[in-house]
């Protein structure tokens, strides 16, 4: 039994031997089994294509398989530039939904610094946590970064960085008071 990559007719495996220097490829055959499985570890977009299992008989028997590798990408549901008034709440929602596999976890960054959830100081009158991250797994992975009572210092570029998908980001602008908001609206008319 051999496995062939059709795009370049490269023989990947023959029997239990591997004929490619790419160590991500290997054949798996349990003892006394008639199943010969081609395994590709850490598939990449360039691995997409047709792979053919061939049995050396007369006439030759073959069975083609199409592999479609989809790049997992994160996306933030909010606009790429988000403007909020100081004191209001901000929720950023990041979604990763490609693939039936483990989607890992998500880290949130503000600029180059990881976002830390804030625990209130014992002397704070407001006992609620101001910055929280909530992850939810359903058909995909949804991560929400929530900032209660936004401060001017919360302005910046926020990135959703999954462990197994391409990251994405949004710019958050916290605006102080009515006069700043009016000036902003006039500036962009």
UniProtKB/TrEMBL annotation:
Any one GO cellular component localisation term in the record: neuron projection membrane
Segments forming domain Ig-like: 1-56, 59-171
Pfam families assigned: Ig_3
Source organism, top-level taxon: Eukaryota
One record GO biological process: synapse organization
InterPro entries: Ig-like_dom, Ig-like_dom_sf, Ig-like_fold, Ig_sub, Ig_sub2, Zig-8
Database matches in PANTHER family: DEFECTIVE PROBOSCIS EXTENSION RESPONSE 2, ISOFORM F-RELATED, DEFECTIVE PROBOSCIS EXTENSION RESPONSE DPR -RELATED
Name recorded for this polypeptide: Neural cell adhesion molecule 2-like
Source organism (scientific name): Asbolus verrucosus (Desert ironclad beetle)
